[in-house]
Amino acid sequence: MSDVADLTPSDDKEASGASPMSAEEVLSTTRSVRKRLDFERPVSRDLVEKCLRLAFQGPSGANSQGWAWVLVDDPATKEKMGEIYRGGMSDHANRPNKEDQPPHRDVPKIADSVMYLAENIQRVPVLLVPVINHTYGRKTTFQQASTWGSILPAVWSFHLALRSHGLGSAWTTIHLYREQEMAELLGIPHPEYTQAGLFPVAYTLGTNFSPADRSLSDKRIFWNRWSEEQLS
Ligand SMILES: Cc1cc2nc3c(=O)[nH]c(=O)nc-3n(C[C@H](O)[C@H](O)[C@H](O)COP(=O)(O)O)c2cc1C
Predict the structure, then answer these.
(1) CA 76 / ligand 1 centre spacing (Å)
(2) pLDDT tens digits for range 127-168
(3) Best mutation site among 28, 36, 171 for ligand 1, i.e. most ligand atoms within 8 A of its Cβ?
(4) How much distance in Å is there from the Cα of 21 to the middle of ligand 1?
């Protein structure tokens, strides 16, 4: 990997003469891409690592950078990861305490797309499993926020970097029902390192994505004081 000076964007879009996306466009159109992942177009390791170097600019508690990034482009390993992913889907469907999670607003709308990704995830050129060590422990809200806050900003930056280079991903956590199985497959020390999710990495089929409806979130903006009326 080269140094920070190499972070200056010089992506395929610029090379092809198209104007680079503004920060606002990248932030408002980075979607979960499932059906529009290009399984056929190879993704170079250099490009993935370039996007990761951008992600590494994200914050971590006390600048600990206690993360690690396991990238898989080996077809046989991806095949096994797909099996674990689908196993996690089945565990989720059969979980005993279904009411312990919030209702999924968009499930009927996205179910087809979620299923498509599950069936095809092994065909994605690169699969990423980011992990974080237990620097802060897990018990208190402070510890949890500090642990997850020390990797998830970088993971999201990675998504934004992918988008700005014509690639896409989808945030997924479902395989974590089988986190240990994935750890054994990939040789990740378990439980010392915790997996943050599984992220497909591929070029997108077309680059036109739209801002999503987040109007519900407008009600969640409070100035100076919490308001129950505003929430209802
Ligand atoms: C914590 C988290 C877990 C998610 N897990 C999955 C998953 O396991 N599989 C999947 O296909 N999508 C998953 N998603 C994607 C969400 O369904 C998606 O972000 C949401 O529908 C909004 O769509 P958008 O990302 O395109 O705006 C997850 C997203 C988050 C933030």
Answers:
(1) 26
(2) 999 999 987 777 899 999 999 999 999 999 999 999 999 999
(3) 171
(4) 23
Query: Do the domain assignments include residue 114?
Result: yes
Helix, strand, coil content of the chain in percent (nearest 5) = 45, 15, 40
* pLDDT value at residue 103: 63
Q: Which of 4, 29, 67, 100 is nearest to 197 (CA)?
A: 67
Give distance in angstroms: CA of 171 to centre of ligand 1: 5
- Pocket, ligand 1, Cβ cutoff 6 A: 31-32, 34, 106, 110, 114, 117, 170-174, 212
pTM (predicted TM-score) = 0.91
- By residue range, what is the domain housing residue 58? 47-95+104-205
Output the domain CATH number for residue 145. 3.40.109.10
- pLDDT band (50, 70, 90) for residue 204: very high
Instruction: Flag whether 74 is in a domain.
Output: yes
| CA separation for the pair 166, 159 (Å, rounded) | 11
Domains in the chain, number: 1
